[in-house]
Amino acid sequence: MADKLTRADIVHGLRKLGLQLGDRMLVHSSLAALGDVDGGADTVIDALIEAVGPDGLVVVPTFACQLPFDRKTSTTPLGSIADQFWHRPNAFRSLHPTHSVAAIGRGAEELLRGHEKAPTAYGEGTPYHTLAVNSGRILLLGVDQDRNTTLHTAEALSGAVYLSDITGAYVDDSGSEVTIPIAAMAGPHRDFIGLDRLFRERGIMRIGRIGSAVCRLMDAGGILDVAMEALKRDPAAVLCDNPNCADCVMQRGKINAARLARESFTLAAVFGDISNDVDEVLRALQGEGIRSVEVTASEYLAHAQILTEKKIRIAAVRAALDEDGAADLANRLGVPLVVQAKTLEDVEAATQLAQCGARVLIANMGAPSSFYEEVYANRPDAPRFAFDPGEFAAAGDKPFLGVFYRGKLRKQMEHFHISDQTFSGQWTLPGQGNGEVKEIISMLRCRSYSGMMTLRSPLGGIDNFRAAAKAFWNLLDNM
Fold first, then answer.
1. Among 193, 211, 233, where does a domain finish?
2. Residue 407 counted as domain residue
């Protein structure tokens, strides 16, 4: 049987990690990870305090199991070390209702004072941020980066758009309950583990073993800087890319929605391109930050209630020229009716619909650009145009230089479909065919185009839609 881990063993292990007398450190811990500790949590706490000495400071997150939080009585969900730490008579505990910390050592009371008055739980004015910008250190004692609350500080300081504003309640020292706003509150799942490699590469973290626990000692300011750099490069840097993680899909969607809010155009998708299952469609739209969708009449009638409840805007009704009821639905919703036209007979039928009061858009399909240019030259009453570059490529045109740039059809355009094909008619992801999609989108953005751009994924299925969306975001990233 292995010997029990003693206080001296733990102090020795901390010294090997690089902890020094006088250090100020924030500790996230797991007693179970250490193995069999003689004296349990109290021994670990004694070792931590001894390792930093009388001029040092030990800070431990204590959080709250439920609200209102009472720093005198509320237990912590963070394990026995944290729970016994705040119970010590020489420990100070902050009043923050969701992310309280306890501290023992020089400057403990000063560090924690006013935590509940900070706008966020872990941003500026909180113990987490104050330690990081004043040469503090972070010790992960048998836990990984997902327990590292200071990484939430990086999110808050970076203005991560997926953070939420909430309220929290605590009991003050007079016994009164106080409710406060808490801005930029972290949501559910994170992938902070993915930052571990960056910390190692920058040389701001040392890894060692104490008992059976793998431990990490880090420069708090350094890891905060590296995390903020990562978030600046990629706002989703601390979110996982698992398409089945609903939490991160939702949060990535908020990032995309914030990007779209800065654009003059509105991005839509086609319901039927994604799935016949409305729940799958809604998840896919949420993940891309898209709030508008083109539907058929049957799709709308089947799912109108949930689309309305989820505040999904109907961008257009898609229909065949001879489809009964579609024009009436489009009129009732106040949206365009998008029909495909490739012959003069199709154009005539679309024009008749428009003359009956429908707001019709002709989408090109199969015919070359010269056909549509002739239509608009000879039929001033013809409906306006929904421009599909993929269809033009399949018809042998160069959609940007040969069609859009010439301007004849651009002047008639009301919708733009982000659709791509090769000259041979094979569907591709946006920007990977001959549709010159990137060039057209770039020029539309230069003109502050305020109409609809509809992301197409004609191959169907949620995976193909996500791939098309990823290609679209990549195009924007490279403009």
1. 233
2. yes
- Beta strands across the sheet bearing 69-70: 69-70, 164-171, 177-185
Q: Which two tokens stand for residue 212?
A: 């059976």
For the beta carbon of residue 394, count every other beta carbon within 10 angstroms: 25
Cis peptide before 68 (omega within 30 of 0): yes
Q: Are 293 and 281 in contact (CB under 8 A)?
A: yes
Closest CA to 336 of 252, 430, 268, 246: 268
Q: Is residue 363 part of a domain?
A: yes
Q: Tell whether 239 is covered by a domain.
A: no
Helix or strand (DSSP H, E) at 208: strand 205-210
Residues 104 and 227 in one domain: yes
Residue 241 inside a domain? The answer is no
pLDDT digits (tens, 9 = 90+) for 351-376: 999 988 889 999 999 999 999 999 99
**Whether residue 2 has pLDDT greater than 70:** no
Instruction: Judge if 210 and 355 occupy the same domain.
Output: no
- Reduced to 3 states, what is the DSSP secondary structure of residue 135? coil
Considering the domain architecture, whether residues 217 and 289 belong to the same structural domain is answered as no
Cβ atoms of residues 25 and 132 within 8 Å? no
CA distance 280 to 28: 38
Q: Tell me, what CATH number does 257's domain have?
A: 3.20.20.150
Supply φ then ψ for residue 69, to 5 degrees: -85, 135
How far apart are the C-alpha atoms of 233 and 404, rounded to whole Å? 33
Mean pLDDT of the chain: 96
Report d(CA 246, CA 299) in Å as an integer.
24
pTM above 0.85, yes or no: yes
Confidence band (pLDDT; 50, 70, 90) for 444?
very high
| CA–CA dist 41, 43 (Å, integer) | 5
Q: What angle do CA 114, 116, 120 make, to 5 degrees?
A: 115
Which range marks the domain in which residue 327 is found?
246-477
Strand, coil or helix: 379: coil
Residues 274 and 321 in one domain: yes
From the number of C-beta atoms within 10 Å of its C-beta (0-12, 13-18, 19+), residue 264 rates as exposed
> Given 176, 200, 233, which residue is the final one in a domain?
233
The tokens of 94 are what? 């902050």
Distance between CA atoms of residues 203 and 199, nearest Å: 6
Same domain, 275 and 154: no
Which residue intervals of 310-436 are DSSP H helices? 326-333, 344-355, 369-378, 389-394
Q: Are 100 and 92 in contact (CB under 8 A)?
A: no
Whether 153 contacts 238, CB under 8 Å? no
